[in-house]
Specification:
The complex is a heterodimer of chains A (about 240) and B (about 325). Helix content of chain A is about 35%, strand content about 25%. Chain A is α/β, with parallel strands linked by helices. Chain A has a single domain, classed as P-loop containing nucleotide triphosphate hydrolases (Rossmann fold, 3-Layer(aba) Sandwich), CATH 3.40.50. In chain A, helix 4 (about 110-120) crosses helix 5 (about 125-140) and helix 6 packs parallel to helix 7 (about 185-200). The longest helix of chain A is centred in the C-terminal third of the chain and has 16 residues, at about 185-200. The longest helix of chain B has about 45 residues, at about 190-230. The two termini of chain B are about 25 Å apart. Chain B folds into two domains: about 5-55 and about 195-325, no CATH class; about 60-185, Alpha-Beta Plaits (2-Layer Sandwich). The mean pLDDT of chain B is about 80. Chain B has helices at about 5-20, 20-60, 70-75, 100-110, 125-135, 135-150, 170-175, 190-230, 230-240, 245-285, 295-325, and strands at about 60-65, 115-120, 155-160, 180-185. The chains are: A alpha/beta (about 240), B alpha+beta (about 325). At the A-B interface, helix 2, helix 3, strand 6 and helix 4 of A face helix 1 and helix 9 of B.
């Protein structure tokens, strides 16, 4: 069943941003995390990745970020062939992405502005550029007034929005959100996915791993369901999802 | 890496040293102790070398010449008396050095040899006076008797000092080969002992310094390791947004260097204080200050301390952070 859906997706005429062809990943411990996964995500898509614990979601994300390498198969992300890529090229790949973590990963000793600016310093941005772009990113997530606040003074939802601003500030082609609503209340969860949807509408591809079936249902984006390392369903946007 | 990134990372290095100031202070403390010990080892080596050098200078070598006295006191019943011999039976062809001029020329030949610092002419008369000073009265009278009856029993000589006593044997061999040289009087054993002691001392100093260097390296590495684990979160974010390994490494290297430089300056101050105090104590005890002045060594000591500090700081942090980035730091999705 899933194979048919995947094939349908592969027939899209749009340009792919992520391609998995026959990808399998087995860890040295013997755990088969992914088995013969084939999929294609096009530029500008919003994709939910769902599945229970151990389904292979984390491995799927790690493979996209080139934190792990597959044992077999080919992975292409944003024009990079990850299976042939030299380690030195990995930072270049990651600069085309923005990462949002479940645990926010904010540096508590830095204020909101500096937490976002940090991502720009890493890519060698100048001070003028940082002063221009960081307020824009903070405004985009509704935190323009909180630039001088410290992370501990913010609510969970606000902290996650800082994380979102940090992922956005370098204008990535792809945003990878690993359970971004896992540590925030339901209302804020809805707001965060709304923001991600807005970002997606402006052309950025979004891949979001989630356990929250309510959100998946409400937003009607494409859904990839993983189970025991295999794609068991790939439901296109607007389809009859969970 | 861009210049502005370097500027930013240097600032981060300073901030990190301050943020981890307790840990930084602890390692500065131990590093200072190491550097002071290294400094003391160097200063002691310098002073021992100076003292041994003085001892070497006092260990003079007397090179006696084949002059009239040599021929006179060297002749036996069997020695042939030539036609042009004088009343003592000595002919001019029986000896090599005939006058002061030739004796001084021989001194010059010795002085021109490699490793010879000086070769001063000592006439037979001077030699006799000097020898008599160290004699008992009876012995001195006997020498006076010999001198009045036959002539000075001591030949003209050259008082030789060497630059490097470890080359004692080959220098003596070269002197022996010069025409007109008779016997050489020296304390070869003492020279050998001094040279051996110097070698042994230098070797011990090198070992001590090497061990302390390794300790310094381990200390800095440990501080960096602690800093690094306390900054795991930052490293994971850096990796996620596409920081290169050298970008991640630089603040740690800067931190290591800062710790090294602070330790170097502090250890220089402590060394100055300790050494001055010791010099004064020794000067009071001996009535004379024979130690190398600290000012003579200050610059080189500071340079050595800085070198050790920067070396251990850089290497320590590079080793630790590279190891971390290879193993755990490559993961950022789970920290």
């Amino acid at each position: 069943m899933a194979e048919n859906v995947i094939n349908d997706n592969l027939s899209f005429s749009a340009e792919p941003i992520i391609e998995f062809r026959g990808v399998s990943k087995t860890y040295p411990t013997g755990t088969h995390a992914l088995e013969d996964v084939n999929l294609r995500i096009n530029k500008g898509e919003f994709v939910f990745v769902v599945g229970s614990s151990g389904a292979g979601k984390s491995t799927f994300m790690k493979l996209i970020m080139r934190e792990e390498k597959p044992n077999t198969g080919v992975i292409k992300v944003n024009g990079f062939n990850l299976t042939k890529m030299a380690s030195k090229q990995v930072p270049k790949l990651r600069r085309t992405m923005g990462m949002v973590f479940q645990d926010f990963r904010l540096i508590n000793t830095m204020n909101v502005f500096n937490n976002v600016a940090f991502a720009m310093h890493v890519i060698g941005a100048g001070d003028a550029e940082i002063r221009r772009e960081v307020p824009k990113a903070l405004s985009a997530v509704g935190l323009g007034e909180k630039a001088r606040s410290m992370p501990m003074q913010l609510s969970g939802g606000e902290q996650q929005r800082v994380g979102l601003a940090r992922a956005l500030v370098n204008a990535p082609d792809l945003i990878i959100a690993d359970e971004p609503t896992g540590n925030v209340d339901p209302n804020m969860s809805y707001d965060i996915v709304t923001m991600l949807t807005e970002i997606n509408k402006r052309g950025t591809t979004v891949i979001m791993v989630t356990h929250d079936h309510g959100l998946v249902h409400d937003f009607n984006h494409r859904v990839i369901m993983l189970d025991h390392g295999k794609i068991i369903a790939d439901i296109p946007a607007g389809g009859d999802n969970v | 890496m861009k210049m502005r990134s370097v500027k930013y990372l240097v600032g981060e290095g300073f901030k990190s040293t301050w943020a981890n100031r307790l840990m930084s202070l602890a390692s500065i403390g131990v590093l200072v102790a190491c550097m002071v010990l290294i400094g003391l080892a160097i200063l002691i080596t310098e002073n021992v070398n100076l003292a041994l050098g003085r001892l070497e200078q006092e260990n003079t070598i007397m090179v006696y010449m084949k002059d009239y006295s040599w021929a006179l006191y060297g002749r036996t019943e069997e020695t042939e008396v030539k036609e042009d011999a004088d009343e003592n039976g000595i002919s001019e062809s029986d000896y090599v050095i005939h006058n002061e001029e030739e004796a001084k020329a021989l001194c010059q030949k010795i002085a021109d040899l490699p490793n010879v610092e000086a070769a001063d002419y000592v006439s037979g008369e001077e030699g006799l006076d000097s020898v008599k000073k160290n004699m008992f009265e009876g012995q001195a009278q006997y020498f006076d008797f010999l001198n009045s009856e036959h002539g000075n029993p001591l030949s003209d000589a050259a008082r030789v000092t060497m630059n490097d006593m470890s080359k004692f044997d080959e220098t003596i061999e070269s002197i022996k080969k010069i025409e007109g040289v008779d016997t050489i009087q020296s304390q070869g054993d003492l020279a050998e002992k001094i040279a051996g002691f110097k070698r042994g001392f230098a070797l011990a100093a090198i070992w001590i310094i090497a061990i302390l260097l390794v300790i310094a390296l381990i200390i800095v590495s440990n501080t960096i390791r602690v800093t690094m684990y306390s900054r795991k979160l930052e490293i994971s974010i850096m990796k996620a947004v596409g920081a290169t390994n050298s970008f991640i490494r630089l603040p740690f290297v800067i931190e290591g260097i800062i710790i090294g430089i602070i330790s170097a300056v502090l250890s220089e101050g402590i060394l100055y204080f300790v050494y001055t105090l010791l010099s004064e104590k020794i000067a009071t005890a001996l009535g004379t200050n024979q130690l190398v002045p600290f000012s003579d060594m200050a610059l080189i000591m500071l340079a050595i301390s800085l070198l050790i500090g920067i070396f251990s700081g850089t290497l320590g942090s590079i080793i630790i952070i590279s190891k971390y980035l290879r193993r755990e730091g490559s993961e950022f999705s789970a920290i």
